Amino acid sequence: MSTEDLIGWFKSKNGFIDTSSMGFAEFPGHGRGAVALKDIPQGHTLFEIPRDLTLSTRTSVLPSRLGMETWKQSGLDKGWAGLILCMMWEESQGSASKWSTYLSSLPSAFDTPMFWPDKDLKELSGTAVVDKIGKEEAERDFKEKVVPAMQSRADLFPEAAHHHYLLERYHIMGSRILSRSFDVEPWSGDEEHIDAAEDNDAEAMDVDGQSLDTRGEGTVDDADEQADDTLEVGSVDLDDEDTENSANVAMVPIADMLNARYGSENAKLFYEARNLRMVTTKPIKTGEQIWNTYGDPPNSDLLRRYGHVDLVPVPQSLGGIGNPADIVEIRGDLAVAVTAVDPVSLGERVDWWLENADDDTFVIGTDCELPEELVSFVRLLMMPSDEWEKTSKKGKLPKSKVDVNVLDVIEKTLKRRMQDYPDTLEEDEKLLEPENADSLSINKKYAIIVRLGEKRILRGVLKRVRAAKEKLQPVPSSGKDKKRAREATDTHPRDKGKKSKR
Length: 502
Ligand SMILES: C[S@@+](CC[C@H](N)C(=O)[O-])C[C@H]1O[C@@H](n2cnc3c(N)ncnc32)[C@H](O)[C@@H]1O
Description:
The protein is α+β, with helices and mostly antiparallel strands. Helix content is about 45%, strand content about 15%. One of its GO terms (biological process) is methylation.
């Protein structure tokens, strides 16, 4: 499907696109993307998509054909199963579907870990990607929600169209949603606002208090101020329980052809009553790529959802090149495993924490700062029994104050976390050196980039923890003193607490 055919279809369905300002081109390594055909000022409308041209469970007629009761009973109103079924069904309608041209323009092959062989997936061991791929959950939804709904209505899903409803197609549609959908909330403006927009199409619409001409230059001074009115590609990772948000997940033709790179956004999609509007948020020079934002996620999420990673300049301590949005996740149970408290009390403390803090994973970013919650959690695990009793009664989380013993447990936790990766940081750095990197497959290279980003954060935070420990407890110079210092660090706070009580 050529881009011209897609644009022709878009215009025929009342979409607007300023083809004098923007075009589409292949960008090596990025696939297709949008390009400025002339200098474009900030606040310029690049294109507008009528809301009824977005494809969601709200706009497809399938849910009403199936009957809303059956739709809900089958669980198709939760998660992505409903939208996937709509997309498969619309595709099966051929040219009778409003979205036929659009659907045939979408990719059917993906580089995401969902489709990686086990050998490549092993390269991601220890990273935040592995547990979030969701292949089994998708297959369960297919079996439990989609197949029974289809079997109940042979009139809507005839045997002859069987090939549109294979598990393989289900995964492809799921990946299209993962990498290209937007979270499109219904218009929440009051009736008056909608009427005004209906009455006078040429009237400037108000977006977050700022006026934008309907088709031309506007006054988007600060995109950040407008964040609430803007949409990001792939902004929804759905909880299976979430009914309301499921209906918001929408495929948005043309808007999903823009690429994104960390900190590069120069255009954004804005909500309006009847349309979604892509507006430049910065001046763009002729020949430059027009970038949307995917919300600047860490490389682990970029790889999982979109199949690529971002590499931009970062401080030397983080390797000089990487993704500033990278994170490393520390599961609370690692801290529990390295804390020597009696198991009964430990279990009670963990349950109490989960009830009161609702956080079983701690996230560290590229600033390599210790999360306050992790410090608070470790303090909770380590506090003497009498203090624990008081804390549990008060229902207040411990202060995130560090001492040598808390830092010691955190250091052990971080070291333990580092062991989740089969290879060391130094081995990974070596693999990415130019003389070795060329022989790596793209999957392996991306996996190394993701795990190295996480490991460098761990190294950074470990360095900080050790420095803080040293500051609190300077290492004495004589060998004898060193031994004593080691013993003091290793002393468990419960013992310390008992000692101070005596
Ligand atoms: C919303 S689509 C954008 C349009 C897409 N390039 C196409 O050819 O249709 C998202 C996909 O574009 C590609 N992409 C976007 N930004 C990229 C980047 N910075 N580097 C590499 N690939 C990128 C990835 O394959 C991603 O899954």
